[in-house]
Amino acid sequence: MSQISSSLSAAPAVRWWKPLLFLAVVVVGLWWVKWQPYYFKALLASETHTLGRSLLADQSPHPLQAAWQYAQTYFLAVWKAAVLGMILGSLVQVLIPRRWLVSRLGPGRVFGPLLAALLSLPGMMCTCCAAPVAAGMRKCNVSVGSALAFWLGNPLLNPATLVFMGFVLGWQFTAVRLFVGLVAVLGVAFAVRKWAPESTPQQLPDLPPDARPFLQRWAASLWTLFWQTVPVYLLAVVALGAAQVWLFPHTEGAVGDSLWWVVAMAVAGALFVIPTAAEIPIVQAMMQAGMGVAPGLALLITLPALSVPSLLMLRGVFPARILWLTLGLIILCGTLTGTLALMWI
């Protein structure tokens, strides 16, 4: 009898240390990669009203050279966040109780996408760095809508980016980005529900507990996640570095205030890949070169939201039709935003 009582008293200790460890990794990792650097970056933006040069500035017009230049610049900017995203995406699978995630973010949870969007706010990650975490959540049976809300919420609802945008582009741009971002994140999450039939929590099978040691399970999750996401991520970034020669015109005044350019920039932004908040100097530089406000607003929505690399990184955990639908809805949000700007400005 005493053995039974002692085992029961020890059980909670086995459960609670894992979420606490996960929370510690989140706080320390985000403080190092995001929170502290962004605090000083916000102070600099408030004084200079700029975030530096556009990542597209001074890029070679030759595709191969442009690919090499952009890959160097991009990975230098994101490697810390990319490593943190891989660590969190693997740890969520072994440290957070699966049933706890399903009970709050699983299929059938009406407010799951809203909770997931709120959980994305501290992350402040770009779409590619948030993708491994979203993949890890999906492997824990988090619903498609909730995982999409978390993934899209990281870049579109990023509080630091909104602050940077207010100081650099003006608070009117920030208000539009915040409103459309909320509509896009929650709209996509709820729209995909009828496109992705999922099992309810009661129908999910009871998986036998994994008896392997913690470090062994984490290593296995990290290795699997790495091979499913990183190689295609690297190749896609290099390919888009070459494609920027055609996606973004380098001639001053080439991008005007017309519906054609609104659609073109919405599509180009949805395909291209950038680090966190890089859309701000890109749009600032292109508008200074003559781009209209309407295509600029379209870029501010679609450029950070997703990209070809991040879509490819999630191909194994989301149905293809959901990824295509998400891409189409984000392009639609950017196009509608730019179109309304054409009508009102």
Structural class by secondary-structure content? mainly alpha
Helix and strand run: HHHHHHHHHHHHHH
Determine the strand fraction and express it as a percent band. under 5%
Radius of gyration: 21 Å
* Low-confidence runs: 1-14, 200-206
Alpha plus pi helix count? 14
In total, the number of domains comes to: 1
Main β-sheet description: none
Mean pLDDT: 89
Secondary structure: helix percent:
over 70%
What overall geometry do the principal axes of the alpha carbons give? globular
Please give the number of β-strands: 0
Distance between the termini: 77 Å
Quick overview:
InterPro entries: DUF318 (IPR005524). The protein has 345 residues and is an all-alpha fold.
Explain what the structure shows.
Its main location: membrane. It is a multi-pass membrane protein. It is found in: Cell membrane. Keywords: Cell membrane, Membrane, Transmembrane, Transmembrane helix. The chain has 345 residues and is mostly helical. It has one domain. 74% of the residues lie in helices and 0% in strands. The chain has helices at residues 2-48, 63-95, 98-105, 112-120, 127-139, 144-156, 159-168, 171-191, 214-247, 259-271, 279-288, 293-305, 308-313, 320-344. Helix 4 packs parallel to helix 6 and helix 7 packs antiparallel against helix 8 (171-191). It is globular and about 60 Å long. The N and C termini lie far apart (77 Å).
